[in-house]
Amino acid sequence: MIAPFAERYRRALADPRLKRNLLAFQRAWRLTRDAAFDRLQAEGPGLGASTSSFADAKARLVAAKDSVLADPDAARARFVAAFAARGGTVHDAWTADDAREIVLRLLRERDVKLFAKGKSMVGEEVFLNHHLEAAGIRVVETDLGEWIVQLAHETPSHMVMPAIHKSRQQVATLLEAETRTDVDPDDIGAMVRLARAELRRVFLTADAGMIGANALIADTGTVMLVTNEGNGDLVSTLPKTLIVIAGWEKLVPTFADAASQLRLLARSATAQEITTYTSFITGADDGREIHLVLVDNGRSALHADPAFRDVLRCIRCAACADVCPSYQVVGGHVFGYIYSGPIGLVNTAAHHGLDAVAGPQSLCVSCNACATICPVDIPLPQQILRVRAKVVEAHGLPLAKRLAFAVWSRPRVFDVVMRAASVLQRPVRRGAFLRVPLPPAQRWRSVPALAATPARDTLLGRTFEPVETGPWANSQARGRTVAYFLQCITDRFAPEQAMAAIELLRACGARVVVPAGQHCCGLPPLDAGDRATARRMAKHTIRALEAVAADHYVSAGASCAIAIAHDYAELLADEPDWRVRAERIGSRTLDLLSFLERVADPPALPLRPDAPTVTMHSFCQTTNVMGSGDAGPGLLQRAGIPVRDLAERGVCCGFGGSTSIDHPELAREIAQRKLDNVRATGAAVLATDNPGCLLHLRGAADVAHDRFVVRHVAEVLLDGVRQ
Ligand code: SF4
Ligand code: SF4
Is CATH 3.40.50 correct for 614-722? Predict the structure, then answer.
């Protein structure tokens, strides 16, 4: 029985050890994973590797996986023929129920009493253990992590390290109860030896064994299996009957393709060059039998939908979870099912129904980190937004969001409401914040005040000529016309940021026009899964931007520039005219920092050692989508500003669209991670390139009485250039 999402979420937040351990793990994993790929790059060519960079290896594996997805029936037929020719039997399981029944039938026919299982995510996906145990078969997990989880009557919380949520004390207690011997929680070696002795008995006496598959090689009918404990080899060689359970998406055409998967899998999953055991099982020896239960369970539906087909490339490395800031805070059990983290937010809907993912999908802050790390290039963030949109289609938006978007999507109504709010807030406004009582979950941040006068009142419809003199006046932006997009947060809360950005563009020699008809880009409803409203707002923005002649469209609201550049064409894909217009605008749209770095390319100014020290939080999407994560610090240095390096500079700050409103506890934890890193720099100023992050971090820093000030990087750069 799976607890409701709200309860899982509450439980996870109440476990401080979980987030502490996962943070330590994520940091260590990131360093070692990157080092493993760096070594591949450095040593691969000398060793004759056909692909030595992460990008090349990824492209190679994507091509192999896509060749199967282009015609899965053909790959499957080839595998089945080769597998059968070597004495194996394939059983097709269309549903989870089919898979369970097939395995149970095979075991009953052989009078199996003890069933030794290697690690299998598909086994978890179809809830195999419960079914077999209910039928009187003793099932023992032989992967150490899986066994610990089984002893605890829990489910895995991580796809590669199933018991990552357990402390060694908890493991010791479980082992003591199971083996009835004293276990020293500080002696991990002794615990491993004890587990080995227990599990050896199972390997030697089991009537049948089960393994999963990391790849099914169509050419030869071979099952590829990677483990670090060797249990898979014992399970697959000692019992007389071996059952392999796998989804058909594990098919790859050739051994060479399986090798290209190995190159990425171990490095991505455990930062190893190769796992300790890599086995290739082709057919059964005399007197033994091998069966493959080939599971669909929603995979064909994923394949039939072009928006989701790519997800079938997944090799279950869990790298996406290992970079996910939300996963770091809440761990894997919150996701409810075996596929946890970003991949789970997509494929769980296919395997267990849309409702299974309705709660967890709201944890995604759209930072795009998972997309950068995935070794098979799955566009997870876009797919998660698609799943969110399906949830909204099925269940509708919550009333508060419906009302908010009804106002937000109507420029005139929105304007009236914002101006009224700006007046009504006066009694509780104190400087940049509103001093109002907040519910406990929100008290870690101060509420930003609306500006008395929005940016639009002074900027809309105006043209700003370039500055003729100054240290950056002859940058490569000279002679260019930039159409400036205000962005709602800047417009209503922080008009000084828009003014600074425009002045900075002028200081770089650009002519700036501010299109008159602009409103919100539609990102808030898009983030919330309300694609219909987002489409209307996107069209409005395209019309407004098209109304001015410009070489570039730029915004210091990085999230909105990125939405226009990267999301509009997909959002409007089914209306060819609009898609073309979206692509035309999108191809010329850049966030401010990307524009300054790629187009303006201003000269370096002498360092001003007496200027306040600055550290830079690079908006996660600037880092992960635009690839401009280094632009901020680089430009600050070029402006002569002393910069302190910020650890995890491009990791999300927890603002994440509506996630910080829907899940303030999650947002607080992610923000604290960011602020701890900022404090460690000792910088006087925290600069960032996204107004949402800025207000979020400024509010959190205000409550924490931090001494640094939080500013938009445009303001800091402008100060530097004007000195
Ligand atoms: S986009 Fe970021 S928050 Fe969302 S699932 Fe991916 S890594 Fe996690
Ligand atoms: S989606 Fe990509 S990163 Fe995540 S588990 Fe699958 S292959 Fe690994």
Answer: yes
